[in-house]
Amino acid sequence: MVLEIKDLRKTFTMHAIGKQLTALNGVSFSANEGEFIGIMGKSGSGKSTLLKCIYRTCLPTAGSIIYHNIDLTKAKDNEIIALRRKEIGYVSQFLRVIPRVTTVDVVAEPLIWKGYTREKARDEASYLLRKLEIKEELLNAYPTTFSGGEKQRVNLARAIISRPSLLLLDEPTSALDAESSKKVVEMMLKLKQEGTTILGTFHNTEILKKTSDRIFFMKNGCIEKTGKTHEILEMI
Amino acid sequence: MLKNEINQSHYNFAFLDENTKREVRRKILKAISIPGHQIPFASREIPLAKGFGTGGIQITLSLLGREDILKVIDQGSDDSVNAINIKRLVKKTCNIEITEDAKQASIIQSRHRIPEEKLENHQILVLQVPFPEPLRRVESEEKKTRRMHAEMDYSRMWLYLYEDLIKHGEITIGARYPVMVNGRYLMDTTPIPRWDIPNLNYSENLTLFGAGREKRIYAVPPYTEVLPLEFKDHAFRVEDFSGKSCEKCGASNTFFDEIIVDESGARRYVCSDTGFCKKRREYNVA
Amino acid sequence: MCALIQDSAKKGENIMLLEVKALTKIYSKNDTCKHDFEKGNVCVKCGSVAAVKDVSFRLDEGEVLSIVGESGSGKSTLLKILYFDIEPTRGETYLSSFEGGKRNLFSVDSKRKRELRNFNMGMVYQNPEDGIKPGISASGNVADKLLAANWRDFGRIKNRSLELLSKTEIPEQRFYDLTKNFSGGMKQRVQISKAMANNPELLLLDEPTTGLDVSVQARLLDMIRSIQQELGIATIMVTHDFGVAKTLADRIMVMCGGVVVESGLADQILEDPQHEYTQLLINSILG
Q1: Residues 6 or more apart whose Cβ sits within 8 Å of residue A29
Q2: Which of B122, B132, B178, C227 shows a CA-CA span of 20 to 30 A to B1?
Q3: pLDDT (mean) for B199-216
Q4: Do A70 and C276 touch (CB under 8 A)?
Q5: Sign of the C-alpha dihedral, residues C145, C150, C154, C157?
């Protein structure tokens, strides 16, 4: 078992207006090596918050997140930094890119953290970007001016290049056309084969069919329905 | 006070009162125990204008005993006006033996030069110093230079040498070249030229430095390491007199005074150390 | 911990470099008073001000920590204390490479402190005049740091200084110009070269881009980031601007009134701030 979530809760407290917002209301599940879990649900159902809590962009209010015997909710900041660099990848739904860094360098960075030389890292990054159909002339350009789809692929490349053990994807294909989506799906399946555990939120049922072993259907901060892909998709 | 044979004046033996001598000697001892470190002392009025060696004179006068033999040079010469005047004061107030022979003297007071002949362990060299603080060139505040010495923080001086090298391709400091004494204190070598600096290193004699106006005494005891500041790849160099020789005695390896002869600009070289030059001529050394 | 950590890149090794414990600086108006700072950082009895109050944190090798706060938060004072510019009232700091991390840096004599500054640390001040000498050339200013670290080979010093100035994109023809004639951004770049000169383990930056034009700021930050990544230098950057913090920081520490109000991973502080004050600051970010 790679990941075990027990009764995860998240409530946002907005001090300025004295309001609270509960985004996660007791989520529990476990995931194994090489499993691909698709997460569905309306916006506001808690899908993004779930991924963010695992990645520690959000601090869970209660519950535990056990990753390979480590409780991430109790881990220190520097331990999380280490995990993010070597083990856990994340792609946000917001298509933000690091400004003034070339595409190749953005994607090469995680390999440099792993100890690759800058040259080797750049080579691997270029290779991956080409596979994701990023045009040659864009490799040394700044992604800030790219289209949504291009940005998304760049961010994805950055997350997957170091072959993380756990991959968290928030709407990774939302801005992609059919062709690019296909390539991305291929890549994700390959990683899955190699043992990466993937949690991804999707709206596209076709992609869910192709990728996910299981689906979580979320509503109001809980997993309302869970089961094998075809079962859930039939229900909807 | 003894008059007539010893002392024809109304002053104490060697002019200074015994209390002053004791103060100066105490400070000399302190200076010897902290090589290169400037020791403040209560500088007295001397019948000589400040800037003409009052510090050196106070040291000499405090050390003189009846058996001492004194040599005084100025710019290397025994005959200069300043040297003569100092010798006259000494003669009048204590009538000890005066010599021009560096080997004979027990105390040598000098402004500007170290004698060419190697001095021995029983001899004391007294140098007259106008500016005792080697860091003054880079820092004008006394409080700060004292702290630099206390913390052995001489980076400002190194920076000066670095910038000098960058600008001119070589270090252009002529006199007052900074040296490290005993690996601890940065010391000013006024008034001696670069030529004489290697003589300070592990010298057999004691060298004392006196600054009357600034009220400081410092010392280089015998067998003390004295090394000029230098970069590993830019060795310290002395003045270059290659190909030149003394007009009077023919020596080619001493420090020279350069004399411009006539309107044509022709130069002649003579030994700066007149006593040494005279000796060479007397013994006809080739 | 299971077998996660492989070798290679320094960051993520979780090797502690710096540990700060209960650092406090009180500007005392009355030395006999037993100060009461219960209601904030001004003593209710005598009006003394605690500029920094019981601040503790740790910094790992290769990590970038950004200390964010408004004026008067104590962030700059904290940094100056770490660089020995200001003496703390209380507190300890330990550097893993100094006496095995067992000796409080504040307990050593001023000569040792100067050695620590010269050999182990690099500092970039907000005001470049505090860090570089205007009457000395750009190359001389970088050489200054090397000379203070006992470099004695002129050729090596010169080459190293030129190498660093090139890295911060100072034009060649200005290497030997006096820095007093440089622009603000250029002066900061000379400061950065100087700070990096002796490959320090710890880099301290005090609002390094404040007051500079936006494009100059961006360029400078990119430069710092690239150098920091290349050399893996542990860095503490003080700033009042979250945007600036975001470009470099792994972790952010928020200060207010001399105390640490919240600290955590950079993205977490920016997206899910917990403390009321942090939320206020985040909500005040323009655009």
Answers
A1: A4, A5, A37, A216, A223, A226
A2: B122
A3: 95
A4: no
A5: negative
Q: How many residues does this entry show for chain A?
A: 236
pLDDT reading at A25 higher than 60 = yes
Residue C25 tokens, joined: 């600086």
CB C57 within 8 A of CB C20: yes
Are A33 and A40 within 8 A, CB to CB?
no
> Which amino acid belongs to residue A197?
T
Tokens 């182990």 correspond to: C120
pLDDT band at C6 (very low <50, low <70, confident <90, very high): very low
Note whether C152 contacts B151, CB cutoff 8 Å.
no
Query: To the nearest whole number, what is the mean pLDDT of chain C?
Result: 90
Chain C residue with the nearest C-alpha to that of A57: C268
For residue A199, the one-letter residue type is L
- pTM value? 0.87
Do A167 and A159 touch, CB atoms closer than 8 A?
yes
**Residues in chain B, total:** 286
Domain ranges in chain B are 2-136+165-228, 241-286
Band the pLDDT of B146: cuts 50, 70, 90. Answer: very high
Beta strands A197-201 and A36-41 are parallel
Residues 6+ apart with CB under 8 A from C198: C118, C119, C122, C145, C146, C149, C151
Given a contact cutoff of 8 angstroms between Cβ atoms, the answer to whether A107 and A161 are in contact is yes
- Note whether A83 contacts C263, CB cutoff 8 Å: no
Q: Do chains C and A touch (3 or more CB pairs under 8 A)?
A: yes
* Residue at token pair 């299981």: A214
Q: Please return the burial class of B265, using the count of CB atoms within 10 Å of its CB with bins 0-12, 13-18 and 19+.
A: exposed
Count other C-beta atoms under 10 Å from residue A28's C-beta.
13
Structure tokens at A57: 């962009």
- C261: amino acid identity, one letter: V
Mean pLDDT on B107-135: 93
List subunits contacting chain C, requiring 3 or more Cβ pairs under 8 Å.
A, B
The pair of structure tokens assigned to A194 is 């190699």
Give the fold, CATH level 3, of B241-286.
Ribosomal Protein L24e; Chain: T; (2.30.170)
Q: Is the pLDDT of residue A8 over 50?
A: yes
Q: What residue has token string 């904290």?
A: C78
C-alpha B168/C-alpha A226 separation (Å) is: 81
Helix axes C184-196, C214-231, angle to 10 degrees: 10
Give B2-136+165-228's CATH code, choosing from 3.60.9.10, 3.30.420.40, 3.40.50.11310, 3.30.230.10. Answer: 3.40.50.11310
**Candidates B210, B212, B249, B275; catalytic one:** B249
Q: Is the dihedral of CA B87, B89, B90, B92 positive or negative?
A: positive
Confidence of residue B247 (pLDDT cuts 50, 70, 90): confident
| pLDDT tens-digit readout, C117-149 | 999 999 999 999 999 999 999 999 999 999 999
Task: Read off the DSSP letter of residue A224.
Answer: E
User: Which of helix, strand or coil describes residue A18?
Assistant: coil
